[in-house]
Specification:
The structure holds 3 protein chains of 3 kinds. Chain A is α/β, with parallel strands linked by helices. In chain A, 43% of the residues lie in helices and 14% in strands. The chains are: A alpha/beta, B alpha/beta, C mainly alpha. Chains A and C meet through helix 8 and helix 9 of A and helix 3, helix 5 and helix 7 of C.
Chain lengths: 301, 257, 337
């Protein structure tokens, strides 16, 4: 009789344990369309993509990071963390040695199968649009056992900040046509890129239509012909922009309607992550700066 | 130039290839207007001797071309007086036969000058002499081994040099064309051209006026091709495995089985 | 009187290629971000006229001249090394140019003093210096230009090592990697009139000297020793020819980036049409190379307008495609007869 009682108790606790475990376990569908099972909330995180690193920190889980890739550089606190290679060339050994509970990497990064084969839990995410950023925050929040309302808060904060920036854009700047140069071939950011989406939120137009793809390699004469009102570009590409044939005659160049961003700011602008709002602030400041009437701009030294 | 003058003279010539001494002290002179063939076993240094005489390898010692030191001559001067035909030189297939033979006229042309009437005539003459005139518009790549060799011979003859050095000139040639070549050589020597050829085919070699027998980097004999000492020297250098016989005024080498 | 079995005399071919080139340039000034449009539209529109004159014409002319430089370098390389697989990038010039660009991009926007200097020098200047220094390194490694095999080997080593260094810089600096992409696949995007003038000057000098030395290349085709026996000054000639190779390749690569296949294919295309001596081969390879790159550039701008394909991809497709067809033809001929 006692034996029977004990057996029932054992069975019950086992059952409860099982239920508890399954309740704890989280299943995530990542960008590889694979189901990833996370048995318990991760305490040690390795991130191999800067935007994912920033997302982890935005969700308040920064202290759980034990390793990052060499390109992650925000916030300051992660700069003390060991570096584990880059997206294209992650250092499998360092990642494994750090004994992470979860590894976050981009879908275009190499090594996901290797790390999985070595027994690590890998989530592959590569945000490319605003919607992707929202989804990434949600997914990582779920994986790290962050309460749903907290992750939702991160996104709504970004949204309200974007809204606020949009309000600050001067009326005269609304509807202006922007050319955003990403790299010197030249590659531009079109309407369908995350940069284009931000510009759209701020109420300005993009000379590169979304049909060209997010980051098309354009014929430089297309830019000249389109006569953008404002050009946004990084410092290093701006340095010799005036030497490009035909460009010195562009109205935007002659009227100095060019915003060139420092390298640190260029990082913010080029990462589709939680700092979207910061990027929007930079672009807004640019629009405000260049909104002074044309003749005023001419008379400036 | 009178006959019995020395066209080419070597004095204590040494040459090394990849650290190994191939010519170990050659003293020899070649008379004007005679045909000399150089024979000997493999590795005796025959090709190297020919290259040394053409000024194409580093040598120590002295080489005199008509009493002028070879070293002191400018490349152009040397090229006008000396024509060299190598063995197994890789030749690109792209040029046509006529252009190849015309290249032989380079030593006599001004640097940027196009070929003149005389050049055209020479090319025609030498191509006809080797029965290759009908091939003049084909590219080298389209020719058989024998045809190619005849074209290269023509190229060497087009130089119209006073001294001709030829390494295995009858390679790939079938018997009728070998006879053509023999006739050409006689024609050349009758015009006071000095011909020196390396030949492994003893029957052809014994058609020459003189024979130089080489072994292990040294000249072991230099004498008339008809003389008995020459025959004995040749037999000796080939370990007496061949014997030389007179057959209707010409000499043949037959194996001693 | 040479080569009457050729389908055309060389002069005829040269003039045809030149005319095709001029036609191509005229076409190129009509091809741009809006696809094909004629000059007539331009006469009404100030901006369009500026675009044609400031952007499209120099690009098209530049493509032709750069292709000409590469074709010339290819002909010299194939004659000098007596190898039909030789191309202008053999002596490490391509990797040297990449390294020059990588270093320049890495320093750009950093130190303001360096940036100022670099703007003046331009990425093109950095690429040119890189190419020339790489070839000098190859020659030093091979201890002179006289031993062809040693030179080729040294060229391979220098190419691999410098290329690896450029890759390393790109890896450590992702902004450099982006900038290198355009360079590595080739593009005529930013060629202006100054670049054209520079390239044309180098082309004239190199063509003139190569023409002067064409006799040496002809003699070399008979074999090195035979060439020496004909009195050719091989040592001096080789040094000059290697220098011409470096200059021509460096000048082209500096402006257009690494364009594949033009240097390799142009001399072959010429030889498939005509068999002649090097004085003509040099001129014809130059014209053929120009035409090849010009055609590739036109297609690069036209196919996905207003986007641009990298021109190096198209040269590989065009040049490689034609060579494959040639191979197939010659195999068929061999099989039959």
């Amino acid at each position: 009789m006692l034996k029977c009682h004990l057996q029932i108790r054992l069975l019950l606790s086992l059952a409860m344990g099982f239920v508890y475990a399954t309740v704890q376990a989280v299943v995530i569908k990542d960008d590889r369309q694979m189901d990833v099972v996370i048995a318990k909330p991760p305490q040690r995180i390795v991130s191999l993509l800067p935007s994912l690193t920033e997302t982890v920190c935005a969700l308040g889980q920064c202290k759980k990071l034990v390793g990052v890739d060499r390109y992650s550089n925000w916030p300051e606190s992660i700069n003390k963390l060991p570096r584990m290679g880059g997206g294209i060339d992650p250092s499998i050994e360092s990642v494994v040695a750090a004994r992470p509970d979860i590894v976050l990497m981009g879908t275009s990064a190499r090594g996901a199968e290797r790390l999985t084969a070595l027994g690590l839990t890998v989530i592959a995410l590569e945000p490319r649009t605003h919607a992707d950023v929202q989804r990434t925050i949600q997914i990582i929040g779920k994986a790290l056992d962050v309460p749903d309302k907290d992750s939702a808060l991160v996104w709504s904060d970004i949204q309200s900040s974007l809204e606020a920036s949009a309000q600050l854009v001067p009326l005269a700047s609304k509807g202006k046509r922007i050319y955003f140069e990403v790299s010197r071939a030249p590659y531009g950011a079109s309407e369908s890129s995350f940069i284009g989406e931000t510009l759209q939120r701020l109420g300005v137009q993009n000379i590169l239509p979304g049909s060209l793809g997010p980051f098309p390699k354009v014929n430089p004469e297309f830019v000249v012909r389109a006569q953008p009102d404002i050009i946004m570009v990084g410092d290093s590409n701006f340095a010799d922009m005036a030497t490009r044939p035909g460009w010195q005659n562009m109205q935007a160049m002659r009227m100095q309607q060019v915003c060139h961003f420092k390298k640190e700011d260029a990082n913010i602008l080029s990462r589709p992550g939680p700092r979207l709002a910061e990027a929007a602030k930079l672009m807004t400041q640019c629009l405000i700066d260049k909104s002074a009437p044309i003749n005023k701009a001419k008379s400036q030294p | 130039m009178k006959k019995h003058e020395v066209a080419l003279r070597l004095q204590d010539v040494h040459a090394s290839l990849a650290g190994k001494e191939v010519l170990r002290g050659i003293d020899i002179s070649f008379q004007l207007g005679r045909w000399t063939s150089i024979v000997g076993p493999n590795g005796a240094g025959k090709s190297t001797l020919l290259k040394a005489m053409a000024g194409l390898t580093q040598t120590s010692g002295n080489i005199f071309l008509f009493d002028q030191e070879l070293r002191m001559m400018s490349p152009k001067q040397r090229a006008e007086k000396l024509s060299w035909l190598g063995q197994n030189e890789t030749v690109s297939d792209d040029l046509c036969v006529w252009d190849v033979v015309m290249l032989g006229r380079i030593p006599h042309q001004e640097w940027l000058a196009p070929p003149n009437v005389n050049d055209h005539q020479v090319v025609k003459t030498v191509l006809q002499a080797t029965q290759a005139w009908h091939l003049r518009e084909r590219s080298l790549g389209q020719l058989s081994g024998g045809e190619r060799q005849r074209v290269l011979l023509s190229r060497a003859m087009a130089v119209r040099a006073q001294i001709m050095l030829m390494d295995e000139p009858t390679a790939n040639l079938d018997p009728p064309h070998q006879v053509d070549w023999l006739e050409q050589v006689h024609c050349l020597t009758s015009q006071n051209t000095t011909v020196i050829s390396v030949l492994h085919e003893l029957g052809t070699a014994l058609q020459a006026d003189d024979v130089v027998v080489m072994q292990a980097g040294l000249v072991v004999h230099h004498g008339a091709s008809a003389s008995e000492q020459t025959h004995q020297a040749i037999e000796a250098v080939f370990d007496n495995r061949i014997s030389i016989h007179n057959f209707e005024g010409q000499f043949v080498a037959l194996p001693k089985i | 009187m040479t080569s009457q079995f050729n389908r055309w005399p060389p002069a005829f071919l040269a003039i045809s290629l030149l005319l095709l080139g001029i036609f191509g340039i005229a076409l190129g000034s009509s091809v741009g971000s809006t696809g094909f449009e004629s000059w007539f539209a331009a006469f009404q529109d100030e901006i369009a006229w500026q675009i044609i004159w400031d952007i499209r014409l120099p690009r098209s002319v530049g493509a032709f001249v750069a292709g000409a430089l590469l074709g010339l370098a290819g002909a010299i390389a194939q004659g000098l090394f007596r190898n039909p697989l030789a191309d202008p990038y053999l002596l490490g010039s391509a990797s040297g140019a990449s390294l020059g660009v990588a270093i320049a991009l890495a320093l750009f926007g950093g130190n303001p003093f360096a940036t100022e200097f670099l703007i003046r020098l331009g990425l093109t200047g950095a690429a040119f210096i890189g190419a020339v220094l790489a070839v000098m390194l190859t020659i030093a490694l091979a201890q002179g230009v006289q031993h062809t095999l040693r030179l080729l080997l040294a060229g391979v080593i220098v190419g691999v090592v410098l290329g690896a260094m450029a890759s390393l810089i790109s890896l450590l600096r992702p902004d450099v990697l982006q900038g290198m992409q355009g360079f590595l696949l080739g593009s005529t995007s930013f060629i202006g009139w100054n670049s054209c003038a520079l390239m044309f000057g180098v082309l004239l000098v190199c063509m003139g000297l190569a023409f002067f030395l064409s006799r040496v290349l002809d003699a070399l085709s008979l074999g090195e020793l035979t060439a020496l026996s004909l009195g050719m000054p091989l040592a001096k000639a080789r040094l000059v020819l290697v220098t011409l190779l470096a200059l021509a390749t460096g000048a082209a690569v500096a402006q257009t980036g690494l364009v594949a296949f033009v240097g390799l294919a142009a001399p072959h295309l010429v030889r498939s049409l005509i068999k002649t001596k090097y004085n003509w081969v040099i001129l014809l390879s130059t014209l053929m190379g120009g035409l090849l790159l010009l055609l590739a550039d036109l297609l690069a701008r036209l196919l996905l307008s207003p986007q641009e394909l990298p021109v190096g991809v198209l040269t590989a497709v065009l040049g490689g495609g034609y060579l494959l067809w040639l191979m197939y033809q010659s195999q068929k001929k061999a099989a039959v007869g």
